[in-house]
Design brief:
The chain is mainly β. It has 1 helix and 7 strands. The chain is globular.
Length: about 130
């Protein structure tokens, strides 16, 4: 099992402050992701620079050839989320700095980074 940070939204197109857990059912990528069924991930709100949810990858990556961008998709199951992104912990608390994310839609986390993020999200969700 691997741990990931899934980048959601863009700096130019922020996610709404109120977290809609139903929007955390899938994640898309421009290239074939290394993410696999059974992996765990933190969701990162680009622009906000906060981690706001914990999800499990519940489907293998699938290619949708009819799409021009974001052709690869995999299913998610949310297990924990804050109510508002503005109340979520900063990504730096996980040991990831926003400038290192670049144009990635996901990055690998160490188990320690994932656990720090999970604990911080759980605390913020209380």
């Amino acid at each position: 099992m691997q741990h990931w940070l899934l980048v959601r939204g863009t700096a130019g197109r922020l996610l709404p402050d109120e977290v809609d857990v139903s929007s955390l059912r899938a994640h898309s990528s421009t290239r074939r992701p290394s993410v696999q069924r059974g992996d765990l991930a933190l969701c990162y709100a680009s622009g906000w620079q906060n981690v706001f949810a914990v999800v499990e990858v519940v489907g293998d990556p699938e290619n949708e050839p009819g799409r021009d961008r974001w052709r690869w998709r995999f299913a998610l199951r949310p297990s924990l989320a804050v109510a508002r992104i503005s109340e979520a912990p900063p990504v730096e608390g996980v040991g990831v700095f926003p400038r290192s994310l670049g144009r990635h839609s996901y990055i690998r986390l160490t188990p320690e980074q994932f656990e720090a993020g999970r604990a911080a999200i759980a605390e913020a969700a209380r």
